[in-house]
Amino acid sequence: xxxxxxxxxxxxxxxxxxxxxxxxxxxxxxxxxxxxxxxxxxxxxxxxxxxxxxxxxxxxxxxxxxxxxxxxxxxxxxxxxxxxxxxxxxxxxxxxxxxxxx
Length: 102
Fold this sequence. Notes:
single chain
């Protein structure tokens, strides 16, 4: 059988087969490349998010150190301690009177 004896549409189909395989190979390569880029982009995004969170934490710490006077921190700590002592005394009084746990 001579190739020139084939009908034109059969010749066309024979020519289309390698081109179709090449196109399929190209599409699969593009898909693989896009998957890799997406994965790399996700990692880069997560790294950026972690870096941003760390920077925010550092900034909060710097604000706490710089903008809040130490005297104010001591005053708040003293008032909180006094309030906790008063609550503790009230609980002890309730426990002694027997009113606690009824």
